[in-house]
Structures are given as structure tokens and as C-alpha cells.
């Protein structure tokens, strides 16, 4: 039987988005946060829902009065952690969505494996669109929509009704290898640690021990701590020998959210530049999250390094990326609706002050629709700029950063 959340009544009164439910457990898990400023200009009608899409949101979105609250992983109860991990494992048992379409065509993306799951489909979409949703105006925007769709999939297919978790990695910036995020090895409620060196760093602890994934080849989930993720010749020498934990300290997040006022491009670029906070988390965690194949991978299959969503911690990582953006948006009215970005990555990827740091022409604008591969629900950038408006209805338990 489906257990309805405590706010189902509010939803029935069209006060919130039923699709994005809020926690079932008692306690102060949600707040009435202040909605952001109104959009700067008319942005037209909602996109029509796609009846063939796997994930559905309510159109037109109801007013968001009572937002669901995203909570840091370690602040969840054990019951909530168990439920979320169980729902992810459930999604990995939901069959591949037959209407998944190869529309992104990023070079190196593997072919669709129809003997897979809806969880694998999410990983595949990320590989298919890799070149369009990184280092472009779709980085923060599309990933916000992508993780909202993943969250909705957990609720739609696996009856998840708890809070959406995020991973505040600033708390782990002192000693990443021995951080508390890796310390819980319980098979029901632990995220597990790093993998077993004797098994090519396959995860053998926590809920995702021996978790099977199919991209870019059939294997079990891997995590391999890599203190020097930029130690290869592709990177300028100054980045190669540095353990990049300094990029995601609380101080650094405060710097980011307090600067770049009104300048979406420079804010995103500081965050997404290859040696920045976003990439450092991927690289230090290594294995699947770092887009690294095992030495025993069959020859010729490892042509994409964009299968990072194989590791469910991806969605916690990107929820925190989203939280930092949302914190910046809330810092100043000039930030809230600020958007600028190209649809093609700038060629100057190692220029720390690249004025085209989030892409070049053809330009995206606030009405640009998201790429969906026939799985994600339709939406435009404008629909997701406000986490408490458009088609979204969530906030975070805190926008502050501390150890
Ligand atoms: Cu990505």
C-alpha cells in the first residue's frame, strides 16, 4: 500500500506539487521558506507534457506554498537512509524504459543496453548528453532538472516518500579519504566506503556492495580514492601535484556564494572549471564517480568517462552542487534569475578567467528546453530557476557551510 506523506492534504488543496512529496516522518522537516523574486520577463506557457516520457511532473505546476526540504545525508535518520538506499536499489530493478532515445550523440557514449534498468537509463542519458550539459549553460540548470527527475523516479516507481538527501562535502574537506561520509558500512543504511583493492576497488561495503551497473560495460560499482585526480598530462602542471580538497572547504563555498554578483557565467565557471569543486569530488572519489574504468574492462568499451551516475552518491553530490547554486541565487536579487550560457563548450578550458566559461554560441536562453532523451519530463530553463516555483517545489534545510 502506498503511504501518503503528511502533506497529501495540502497537495489536495493544490498548495504543493504532489509529484515532489515531502517527508512522511514526524518532526520539523520542512519550513515555509521565502519564495524568490518574480521572473524578470514573461516566459510564456509551460511546455506540454510528453506522454511517452518515463518521468512525469504535474503541468501546469501548482503554486508552491509548502516546499519539500532536502536534508544532508548525515542528518537523515537511519530509517530515512534505509528507505532512500532501498528506493535506489528498487529503481535498479525497474526495467529499462523502452522509449529511451539516443538524441544527445556525445562521441564515445556507449550504445543503449536494453538488458538494463531505469537506473542504468539515467546513467546512460548523462553519457549521451555529456558534451551538451557540461561546460555549457546547461551545467547547473540541466543537472538541477536531471536530479529532480531522478528524485521523482524514486517516488513514482519505488514509492519513496522521504526527504531528498544531499552530500555537504564541505564537511569532508579536511581529510577526504577518512571522512565520515565513507564510514558507514552498514548494508542497509550505509553509503559504504572505498572499494576493495584486491577486487579492483569494487565496493564491498554498504548498501551498494557489488551493485551491478551496465555502462560502459557490465561491472560492479567501484570507488577508488585518488588523491591526485588531475595528475595527468592533459592538465597544466600546476594542478597535477595538488590534492584538491581546498576547492570545497566551507570558506571556499562562502567565497563563491558571496561573489560573482549577477554574473551567472563566472559563478558557474568558478564552480565547474575542471580543477574546481565539482570536478574534485568526482576525481577524489574515483572509480565510477570519477569516470574511471577497471583495468580488466574489455578493450574498446571504455570510450566515455561520463558514467559517473553509476554511483548513486552522484545524486547526493549534485544535490549539493545545486544547493550551492541555490545559496548563490538567494544571496542577491541580481543572482536569482541570472542566466547566460552557450550550448557549445568554450575551447579555453584551462583559462581561469574565460569570459565564455560556460559556453559559446549558439546561445541558450531562459526559454531553452532541456534535452530529455525521451525519459525526463519536458521543461525549460525558466521552469527550474526557482526551486520553489515553476515546476519545482523544494528548498534546503540550510544554505550555510560549516565543518
Ligand atoms: Cu554531469
UniProtKB/TrEMBL annotation:
Keywords: Metal-binding, Signal. Residues 311-322 form the Tyrosinase copper-binding domain. It comes from the Eukaryota. Residues 1-21 form the signal peptide. The keyword Signal applies. GO terms for molecular function: metal ion binding; oxidoreductase activity. Gene3D superfamilies: Di-copper center containing domain from catechol oxidase (1.10.1280.10). Pfam families: Tyrosinase (PF00264). Coiled coil: none annotated. InterPro entries: Di-copper_centre_dom_sf, Tyrosinase/Hemocyanin, Tyrosinase_Cu-bd. The keyword Aminoacyl-tRNA synthetase does not apply. This is Tyrosinase copper-binding domain-containing protein. It comes from Botryobasidium botryosum (strain FD-172 SS1). The lineage of its organism: Eukaryota, Fungi, Dikarya, Basidiomycota, Agaricomycotina.
